[in-house]
Structures are given as structure tokens and as C-alpha cells.
Inverse folding.
């Protein structure tokens, strides 16, 4: 079923309240592509790693509450974050297929005047771009082809895993991000550890272990000769952008590969500049893009 | 160390319809061999052992308080879930084990702090005036306010406050 009306934007806590330049790039891209999004008073998604590990029952109830907000407006959700997408997709699916859980959650939601019905869909923005906008339309908006940019793609875990829940793209060889990056004229670079996690979750328990996982990932990308890394999740963005300096200190090895959000890459291809997109806000600054037209 | 199965612990895990699947674990070690955290730590974190502990009802195998990394090292990358030949939903089981650890007060601070922030603000990262100013500069609307009372009401029903031993301001 095509669901091509307006969507409710779910930017997530991290993009909205910490790295809003990513939200700004997404809204620019949506505008150019004619994707209409509205804001809604969502709470925390909540985090599928942190909060689900802490208390699954609370995770389920708060996720359901967000879905109710969208259901009340009869609109599907488009999320800018892998984590939010996974939580909302998983909660939606679990409650739709488990009458017992649904009635338990609804008994709590009823006391705040809400009821989960299971009537809306949740999109990762990558899926929305691919399914509802389409690669051809994106190509038509490219006014500044990113010829010569060598970009490695890091999809991140919660976009397509677990496949039983996410049911989109491939759990270990995802293709859609690569197609979208290629649509800008950039060159997609292969590397061995493409399916590997960025390590942010392990870092929650012990920072050094998170860095070891990140190092394995980054070393593989360095070896590939890529100049940039495309990401579609703010947790991956922060881990990979923010921790290259720490890797450098800890392992006395140079790491200097800028991380670009897919929406930033698309916006660059649509003619927005380094300054328009506030790319100086990145920790690893994509300086080479500064003087590009 | 003697291993006495703890029936309560086992029941807690098996209550959630996972029993059917978990009993098919034949300890092949595939999960551990694909786990990036096991790799990075020389198996100090070992998902197969957690499944064994859950299967046998031996909480001391998985909840050993002397090193909470043995359960909290998991970064929930869902690689093991995909690769297990018996379709065991490992991360579902890990969630339950970690939930028990939270209630026993042995979770890493990152997790309990995040949950307290959500309990207090309805969001894991609350809005800040500096970021709101920056949003304005970028031409973004303010972040829509969420209904914190409603969220707290729900979290009192799930007893998250009690599980975290959280003290509300009026009780302090
Ligand atoms: S991969 Fe599956 S069957 Fe093999 S040890 Fe791990 S949980 Fe058990
Ligand atoms: S989900 Fe956890 S246990 Fe499974 S592979 Fe990833 S880090 Fe390892």
C-alpha cells in the first residue's frame, strides 16, 4: 500500500537536541524532494539499546505511546535514526502480533487516554527515499554531482537487523544506502568490515572496548582508500566522528576521515554548501568540501 | 563453586515464550565466534555462556556481580541473532538478564542514568537552551515539547522508579 501522504517527523533526542545540523540537512532534502513532514510532540523513542536493556516493559509502553500519537493523527512516522526506527518498528510489530502484550500495554495507556491500535507504519528515512521518492527523482535534483568523492557506506546495525523485525534491505549486505550515495555521482567504496557495528553500544559499558570495535571498523575503511564515510544513524555518527581523536591518542595512529550523514551528502549534491549545512560543526571537519561550488 | 539451578531465575526467563527456542541451543559457539565484543575482549564477554546460564537456570553463570561486563558488554548489534543456526533470539534473552541486573543494582551507570533522565524529562537527551538557539539559527522550529506527566504516569505503572530505586523530589 502506498502511503504517500504527509509523515510525522521523528528526529529523535540525539539529532534534535545534540546535533541539529543533521535535522536541518534532512529538512532541506525533504523540501527539495517534495516530502512533506509535520512535527509532533513525541517523547523518547526510547533507545532500543539503553532503555530496552534497562527495562523492557517500560520500553514497550513508551514506544507504544509514541505510536498512539501518530495513530491519533492518522499519519505514519519517518525517523532520521536507526535506533528510533528499530524501537518503533519492533514495538509496533510485537503489539500487533501479541494480543496479551497489547492488552497489558493498553491498560496502562488507557489511564492517560490513549490506545494502541496498530494502524500506522514506521519508515527509516532511507526506506522513504527509496520507496516513495525513488532513485530517479533524486538523480533529477542533483545539480552538483559529487564526482570524485570516494565514500564508504556504514549502514549501522539497527537499520536492517534483526531481519525478522526490520524486514527491509539485507541484514549484512545492505544495498539501499549504496544506491542513494551513488545517485549523487559519488563513488561507493567497498571495504571488508562493512557489516561491522560502530562499537557505540559496547562503549556504554566500557569505553575502551567500544574503541577497539571502532578501530577494527576504521582500519578497514582506511585500507579501502575511502575519503568519507556515509552514515544514517546519529549514534554511529557521534561514535565515528567524535572518537577518531580518541583512537588517535590511544593507538598513536592517524585517523582523519570525515563522517557525512546521508542527508548532508544529498544536500551537497543538490547544491547546498559547507556553510549552508554547518559542516564545521563536525569534529572531523570535511575541509575539502569547503571550497566546492 | 557449586551449581544449583535457580528455579525462579529460570522461570523468569522462560515465562516470556522464549523457552521453546532456547532449548534448541546446542552450544555450537557460532554466536560467540561472530560477536565483535567477544573478539575485542578475548571472550571476556561471551554470549554462548549467557545462553547456557539461562538454559540451565544458573544465574551465577551470567549475573556474577564481580564483572558486570560479562552481561553488559553486549552492544546489541544483533549479529548473533542473525547467525544462530537455531534462530534463538539471543538479544531478547540478554534484555531479560540485563533487566534483572538493573533491579539487582549491578548495571553500569550509563544505563541507569539514561533511564533516570527519561523518567525525569521524557527524553534521553533533554532540550537545552544553547541547542535551541542553534536550531533557530539553522532555521529549525523548536523541538516540540512532550507530555512529561503522561510519560511519568506510565513509568510509575511499569514501576521503573522502583526498579531504579529512584526517589521523586517530594519523597527526598
Ligand atoms: S549460535 Fe545459537 S545454538 Fe549456537 S551456541 Fe549460540 S545460541 Fe546456542
Ligand atoms: S548482539 Fe551482543 S552478543 Fe550478539 S553479536 Fe552483537 S555484541 Fe555480540
Amino acid at each position: 500500500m502506498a502511503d504517500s501522504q504527509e509523515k510525522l517527523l521523528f528526529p529523535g533526542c540525539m539529532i534534535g537536541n545534540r546535533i541539529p545540523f543533521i535535522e536541518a540537512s534532512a529538512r532541506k532534502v525533504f523540501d527539495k524532494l517534495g516530502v512533506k513532514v509535520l512535527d509532533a510532540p513525541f517523547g523518547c523513542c526510547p533507545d532500543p539499546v539503553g532503555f530496552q536493556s534497562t527495562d523492557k516493559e517500560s520500553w514497550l509502553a513508551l514506544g507504544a505511546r509514541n505510536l498512539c500519537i501518530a495513530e491519533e493523527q492518522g499519519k505514519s512516522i519517518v525517523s532520521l535514526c536507526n535506533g528510533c526506527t528499530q524501537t518503533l518498528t519492533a514495538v509496533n510489530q510485537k503489539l500487533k502480533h501479541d494480543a496479551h502484550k497489547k492488552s497489558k500495554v493498553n491498560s496502562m495507556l488507557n489511564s492517560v487516554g490513549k490506545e494502541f491500535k496498530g494502524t500506522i507504519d514506521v519508515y527509516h528515512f532511507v526506506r522513504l527515499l527509496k520507496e516513495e521518492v525513488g532513485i530517479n527523482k533524486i538523480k533529477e535534483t542533483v545539480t552538483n554531482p559529487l564526482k570524485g568523492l570516494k565514500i564508504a557506506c556504514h549502514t549501522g546495525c539497527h537499520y536492517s537487523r534483526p531481519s525478522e523485525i526490520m524486514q527491509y534491505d539485507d541484514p549484512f549486505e545492505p544495498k539501499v544506502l549504496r544506491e542513494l550515495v551513488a545517485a549523487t555521482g559519488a563513488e561507493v567504496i567497498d571495504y571488508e568490515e562493512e557489516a561491522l557495528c560502530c562499537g557505540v553500544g559496547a562503549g556504554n559499558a566500557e569505553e575502551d572496548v567500544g574503541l577497539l570495535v571502532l578501530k577494527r571498523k576504521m582500519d578497514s575503511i582506511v585500507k579501502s582508500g575511502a575519503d568519507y564515510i556515509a552514515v544514517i544513524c546519529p549514534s554511529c555518527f557521534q561514535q565515528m566522528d567524535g572518537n577518531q581523536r580518541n583512537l588517535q591518542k590511544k593507538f598513536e595512529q592517524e585517523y582523519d576521515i570525515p563522517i557525512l550523514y546521508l542527508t548532508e551528502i544529498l544536500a551537497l549534491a543538490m547544491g547546498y554548501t559547507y556553510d549552508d549545512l554547518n559542516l564545521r560543526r563536525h569534529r572531523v571537519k570535511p575541509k575539502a568540501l569547503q571550497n566546492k561550488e | 563453586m557449586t551449581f544449583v539451578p535457580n528455579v525462579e531465575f529460570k522461570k523468569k526467563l522462560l515465562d516470556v515464550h522464549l523457552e521453546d527456542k532456547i532449548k534448541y541451543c546446542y552450544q555450537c559457539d557460532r554466536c560467540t565466534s561472530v560477536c565483535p565484543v567477544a573478539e575485542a575482549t578475548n571472550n571476556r564477554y561471551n554470549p554462548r555462556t549467557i545462553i547456557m546460564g539461562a538454559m540451565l537456570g544458573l544465574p551465577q553463570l551470567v549475573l556474577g556481580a564481580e564483572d558486570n561486563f560479562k552481561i553488559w558488554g553486549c552492544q546489541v548489534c544483533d549479529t548473533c541473532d542473525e547467525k544462530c543456526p537455531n534462530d534463538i533470539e539471543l538479544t531478547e534473552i540478554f534484555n531479560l538478564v540485563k533487566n534483572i541486573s538493573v533491579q539487582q543494582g549491578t548495571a553500569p551507570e550509563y544505563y541507569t542514568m539514561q533511564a533516570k533522565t527519561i523518567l525525569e524529562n521524557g527524553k534521553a537527551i533533554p532540550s537545552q537552551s544553547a541547542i535551541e538557539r542553534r536550531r533557530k539559527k539553522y532555521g529549525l522550529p523548536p523541538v516540540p515539547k512532550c507530555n512529561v506527566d503522561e510519560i511519568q504516569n506510565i513509568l510509575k505503572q511499569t514501576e521503573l522508579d522502583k526498579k531504579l530505586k529512584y526517589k521523586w523530589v517530594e519523597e527526598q
About this structure: Residues 7-104 of chain B form a domain with the Fumarate Reductase Iron-sulfur Protein; Chain B, domain 2 fold (CATH 1.10.1060.10).
